[in-house]
Amino acid sequence: MALVARVRALLLPGSRLRGATLGRAANGGGAGARRALSHRVLVEADPAAGVAVVKFRNPPVNSLSLEMLTELGICLEKLENDKTVRGIVLTADRPGIFSAGLDLTEMCGRNPAHYAEFWKAVQELWLRLYQSNMALGAAINGTCPAGGCLLSLTCDYRILADNPKYTIGLNETQLGIFAPFWFKDTMVNTIGHRATERALQLGLLFTPAEALQVGLVDQVVPEDQVQSTALSVMSQWLAIPDHARQLTKTMMRKATVDQLLKHREADIQNFVSFISRDSIQKVLQVYLQKLRKKNH
Ligand SMILES: CC/C=C\CC(=O)SCCNC(=O)CCNC(=O)[C@H](O)C(C)(C)COP(=O)(O)OP(=O)(O)OC[C@H]1O[C@@H](n2cnc3c(N)ncnc32)[C@H](O)[C@@H]1OP(=O)(O)O
After folding, report:
1. Is the ipTM of this complex over 0.90?
2. Is Isomerase included in the keywords of this UniProt record (predicted)?
């Protein structure tokens, strides 16, 4: 289902998004600051600075469910159409977990049509972020595995909180699955081929010190300074004339984007046939059960 169709479905009677205040701006915060709220995404815009802070709030772990992907997509589209916004900082509404990555329940025990719809939504969000003309920063105020790491890698820079519990990486192989080529390419574009090969094969989750060393993040700062640092770095990116920065960004990312655009349908089919395998379903069920057992 395309984004518009998914939005319509979310707005059907009984849907949890129905009645949400998505896009409704209310005055609050500092002079000129605006807040907009959907169920799972909070936007705090500062038109004077030209920056919006987009906060994930999909408890308990900010997993990227189909609904979360859709709401995030809508929110980013609105910001792209807002002439007062030139930069976005992605962060978690509450410190602790930036995002636990793709929602495993979307990939377990469902039918092929659902897997295809979910994967298309993942592709759409990546394309929207990776091709964004805006300057994007990630204020990583919590642990950041797999799909969470991918979100941060679409940004132009990453600031990570200095807390050894907050690890970051594409850990898919640890689950018994693997990162598709465009996840891999996004990481290669950030830390290079050799470091990516090692990180992906071993499914490494890097501590802040390791992530800084390998170049996965640009700065590690005390936990209470993550957002302020991300905003201050943003002002450097926004000091560059937009057209020059945007043309450069497009040039740097075009080959990677084109690869997915060219193989989009095949990538969906690959994902569906891989994830539908009995052996993969079993591995994911075991992983989910292990996560759940901790709490019961
Ligand atoms: C082809 C590419 C495919 C996939 C790419 C991906 O993104 S796969 C997802 C990979 N993500 C992970 O491996 C992270 C898994 N989660 C964790 O390691 C921990 O949950 C985390 C994030 C460190 C937080 O730990 P914490 O102790 O704070 O929470 P807990 O583990 O108790 O989790 C709370 C409930 O959330 C459920 N949950 C966690 N992660 C996910 C997830 N990714 N998708 C769906 N659900 C998730 C967990 O089962 C708990 O559920 P509950 O029923 O409340 O026990």
Report:
1. yes
2. yes
- The residue segments making up the domain with residue 125 are 3-291
Number of independent structural domains in the chain: 1
Q: How far, in Å, is the centroid of ligand 1 from the Cα of 145?
A: 9
Asked if the model's pLDDT at residue 26 lies above 60, the reply is: no
Burial-class residue 169 by CB neighbours within 10 Å (0-12, 13-18, 19+).
buried
Q: Is 70 inside a domain boundary? A: yes
Nearest to 60 by CA among 77, 40, 74, 80: 40
| Residue 13 pLDDT level (bands cut at 50, 70, 90) | very low
- 131-159 confidence digits (pLDDT tens): 999 999 999 999 999 999 999 999 999 99
Known active-site residue 160: no
CATH number for 191:
3.90.226.10
DSSP 8-state secondary structure symbol assigned to residue 215: T
Domain membership of residue 264 (yes or no) is: yes
Q: Is residue 272 part of a domain?
A: yes
- Is the Cβ–Cβ distance between 191 and 215 less than 8 Å? yes
CA distance 168 to 235: 25
Burial of 2 (0-12, 13-18, 19+ CB in 10 A): exposed
- Of these residues, 171, 205, 216, 284, which one is catalytic? 171
- In the residue annotation, 153 being an active-site residue is answered as no
**pLDDT tens by residue, 64-103:** 999 999 999 999 999 999 999 999 999 999 999 999 999 9
